[in-house]
Design a protein that fits this description.
The chain is an alpha/beta fold. 40% of the residues lie in helices and 23% in strands. The strands form 2 sheets. The protein has an 8-stranded mixed sheet with strand order 3-4-6-5-7-8-9-10, sandwiched between helices. The chain has a two-stranded antiparallel sheet with strand order 1-2.
Length: 293
């Protein structure tokens, strides 16, 4: 195989691994069988594992924010109680609120950092941990991914709905609520837009599963939807989703980022595309300021 073909194949295998279609051992084994000039692609595969320490952009002790963990009731969820990472901007509140929803592996350091970024931009941010009812994010993505697969999806989604309502009603919130999320969290952002109706003012899903066409008429939020260029499974849902949004007069924007793969906003892995991630985040913050402030 040519080098670019091998790299694409390794990225495709990594995508399968991230979404739980293959295990870590199989990912590394199949990558090691790919060679370029007789050299195994195993090193490339190993380099794709998250490096959260190198990716932190906002320190937890940054003077512009006050972060803390909070617990709150979650009726109908996995255990009836949830925990999240609440980050409040410095200064006088109340603040418009943004829910930050994790991928398919719980509240890892990347998502916590995104919540801090939202707070620095002036929003009361909550990043719920869907794994809290079964012990919380375990400290590594492999275990986190396996744990999230054990949860009943309707109960996990209800935990996210309850998290959104908790944040909207928080004493430091203005009551104007936005939501953003990545991969599974992107699909969940679309789910919240359907479920919350007028209680969600703005939604920004990143490369997530589209809302079901029959459910789109329930959306009242202004939507900004980010896509990676090379993301076949998610992008296949785009035409029907856009047609439904148009047919129901939902306010929306869709952006696709050239040269990107699924997960391009996550700065802890090589799929990260700095220029696209920064542009998408700037657009996200501008969208929230336009519809929440």
């Amino acid at each position: 195989m040519e080098k670019d073909q091998v790299e694409k194949r390794v990225y495709d295998l990594y995508d399968d691994y991230c979404h739980g279609r293959i295990e870590r051992r199989e990912f590394l084994s199949r990558a090691s069988a790919l060679t370029v000039g007789g050299v195994s692609a195993l090193a490339l595969a190993q380099a794709m594992m998250p490096n959260y320490a190198a990716a932190e952009t906002i320190s937890f002790n940054d003077e512009r924010i006050t972060p803390r963990y909070v617990t709150y009731p979650s009726p109908g969820g996995t255990s009836g109680e949830m925990r999240g990472y609440l980050v409040q901007p410095s200064g006088e509140g109340p603040f418009p609120a943004v829910l930050v929803i994790h991928e398919n592996r719980g509240l890892n350091p990347y998502i916590a950092d995104v919540a801090r970024r939202a707070a620095v931009a002036g929003f009361l941010a909550l990043a719920p941990d869907g794994l809290y009812p079964i012990g919380g994010y375990p400290g590594n993505d492999d275990e986190g991914r396996a744990m999230q697969r054990t949860l009943e999806q309707p109960k996990l989604l209800q935990d996210m709905v309850n998290s959104a309502r908790y944040l909207k009603d928080h004493e430091a919130s203005t009551g104007k609520l936005g939501a953003t999320g990545f991969c599974w969290g992107g699909g969940t952002t679309n789910h919240l837009a359907v479920t919350l109706g007028g209680d969600l003012s703005a939604g920004v899903p990143f490369y997530g599963r589209a809302a079901a066409t029959a459910e789109v008429p329930k959306i009242r939020a202004a939507m900004m939807i980010h896509y990676a260029e090379d993301d076949q499974r998610v992008n296949a849902m785009r035409p029907d989703y856009e047609a439904a949004l148009k047919a129901n007069n939902v306010r929306y924007e869709m952006h696709s980022y050239p040269g990107t793969r699924h997960g391009f906003h996550n700065d802890s892995t090589p799929r990260y595309n700095e220029a696209a991630a920064n542009l998408a985040w700037d657009r996200t913050i501008a969208h929230f300021k336009a519809h929440l402030v």
